[in-house]
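PROTOCOL LOG
Step 1. Enter all chains and additional molecules of the complex.
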Amino acid sequence: MSTTFVAAVASSSILSGTSLLYATLGELVGERAGIVNLGLEGVMLIGAAVGFAATSIAGNPYFGVAAAALAGSATNLLLGYVVIARQANQLAAGLSLMFFGLGASALIGQPFVGAIVPALPRLGVPGLGAFDVLVWLALPTALFLWFLIFRTRWGLALRAVGEDPAAAFATGRRPGSIQYQALALGGLLAGTGGAHLSVALAMTWDEGMTAGRGFIAIALVIFSKWNPLWAVAGALIFGGAEALQLQLQARGTDLSPFLMTMIPYLLTLLVLGMWGWNRQSAAPAALGRSFFGVE
Amino acid sequence: MRRLRLLVLACLLLLAGTPAIAESALTVGAIYVGSVNDYGYNRAMKDGLNVMRAAIPGITLLEAENVPETAEAERVMEGMIQQGARLIFATSFGHQQFAFNLAKKHPDVVFEHAGGWMQAPNFGNFFAATQVAWYPMGVAAGKMTKTNTLGFVAGVPIGYIIGDVNAFALGARSVNPQAQIRVVVTGSWSDKAKEAAAAGALIDQGADVVTMHVDSPVTVLQTAETRGAYSIGFNSIEARRLAPNGWLTGLGFAWGPFMTATAKSVIAGNFKPAMVREGLGEGMVVVAPFGSAVPADVQTLVSAAADRIAKGYNPFTGPITDSTGTLRIKDGEAWGGDKMGNFDWYVAGVVGKAK
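Step 2. Run joint prediction.
Step 3. Record the structure below.
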């Protein structure tokens, strides 16, 4: 393999992996606070639709990304109300949110189908290539999130709520409030991930355009063992698998195209299988459970 | 739905005010699988119906977008029939069975389905012979490439799509024997993020002309434009607005004349079902205007190639070998329209595997 081929695969892995990374980080923050959001796909879709619509209205892609982040946050808070204030089952509420996002994004995006918008501009850095600002910010965001979760008092509270909300409550923290904050932050990230698809990559809106990436991101949270730095690796592996199979096809290969399109998913299964499950450092103990308060 | 109701209301008012037209009026229903603003397949269908509406005074058009290829389609069409539709265009391949079910139930309603094969006294189908029309597109690409590498983003590798790629390759190599055609399959008719990555991959691997057969050309055209590559469009010729610098030419569907003729036959009561497959010659497929990048001599060559196809030239005339060197179409043999679905191999010059 020539160096240009490797460079092409690397750069398109980063492009494909970026929206996944934002979505994975968004899910990860919420799960650290004990809330599993199966509606991530819907949140991404709302981000993609709002991002494209706002870019089209304002003529500015940065404005579009900001609007997408806020919309993602608002969608997550909706889930928050249902599962925190109303203590609904998280899995059922998450799935409903996914379908809500599918419909709401279709409604928001419909008038803007076919609109021609300015894409997020690519900013070149000598020696590294030219990427849009969301790509450049992806790794710093993951590092920041790692710092936030593992090195700040807020992160400590977040993890405490995710492990044992009753104990966190006993030490004077308010689990509900922290969970809302985590969901708001997670929504910002997931909405941004959706916007990267519509505003930077595809430059269009299409119903259901996330095509399952929200669910892959949920799997990547498990792969990452709820650590933002491992999430970077996960997003790169999946993005890389997609990039590799497309670049291999473009280069010409003897493999069947039907097999090639399966590669990213096969790889996800393989990695999850090899990685295995480790109770010690794995899921937040109170993940998916409602906190009903203490007597 | 509100738009539908408004349309019906407007038409009722129109009919009440102009009784002379009421006699010839016909209500036509149309269902689209996507949005009509996609610069692609659905837009072309919508443009065709607009031509029909303009050509026949007093016609009423009921439309529904984003109709899935499920039993939902049957309900939408049933609703249109309840509102008076006597001619229905089911425009996506997967709408076929649902339209056919209704055709049996409503013998007084005529159905036209795009791309299928089913037949009944009130059920016809139509589609364009796109494969050979790709030949002049190949001529344009083969003349314009500097890297001798052409990229093709294909949605799902069914026989007809492989036929498109093959005719494109034969056209390109008729003017540039060095030309190589690289194909990337995305595995879906519409996965925009993957189409962006696929077009990017083709350009990374040296392609300087990129084309596609997916539902909407929007993403591939814009990706090529951003990366400074030439592009060739497909489905709707209006897509050229998306790539003002890199646009070479493209193929578009022109359904208008066929739809107009069908509506007229339904009004006259002499509708005959048929399996209509027309191409460049009949004007069901048209070559898009050239982009500013295409010099006059190349325009002449492409137009001449399109003209030859229109007059009946079949590029799938043997001897034709596949990409592994095996003889597939013997000397003196030719593959006509009925065999276009049979391709499971690429012609020489295409890099990639068909199955």
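Step 4. Note key features.
Residues 1 and 64 of chain B are 8 Å apart (CA to CA).
Chain B has two domains: 2-128, 134-252+286-351.
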